[in-house]
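agent> step 3/5: call structure_predict on target 'NADH-quinone oxidoreductase subunit E' (Stutzerimonas chloritidismutans).
agent> reason: downstream docking stage needs a structural representation; sequence fetched in step 2, passing through unchanged.
tool.input:
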Amino acid sequence: MATLPQRFAPEQCQAVAREVLAAHRDRPGALLPVLHDIQDRLGAVPPELLPMIAEDLSLSRAEVHGVVSFYHDFRATPPGRQVLKLCQAEACRSMGVKALTAELEEKLGLALGETHEDGSLSFEPVYCLGNCACAPNAMLNGEVHGRVDAEELLALLAEQEALA
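tool.output (status=ok):
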């Protein structure tokens, strides 16, 4: 998987983490709000911050890592400028998303779960967008699209890139 350069220097990431931790540390169950706040500010939860978060919240590194790795929306590196999520759940599988995934991987030059090295696009799996009656489904930059095919998704990507 290609990794993107971090948008922020390590010192900036640590400063953001210290600020977030100070704002949340006295809250019961502060871990999830801390992780969400860090990701909102940095675009990701850099792995090098996990020991700092664990120590500040009196948790083990394993507990923090377990939460970050369990929830699919937390990421270690910032996403691409565009994010295409393709549903891989049962309804979409029954409507051909496996073949659609392979076709998009070929046309995008990107495997599911990867981000282009230039940071232009992240192609991610998602497991149910709540639009099963219109399978297969995709989410492009937060907007759900149903009954999609490769040509439609490529056209949407091009349209979004032109607007950027």
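agent> step 4/5: record observation. Residues 10-24 form the longest helix (15 residues).
agent> proceeding.
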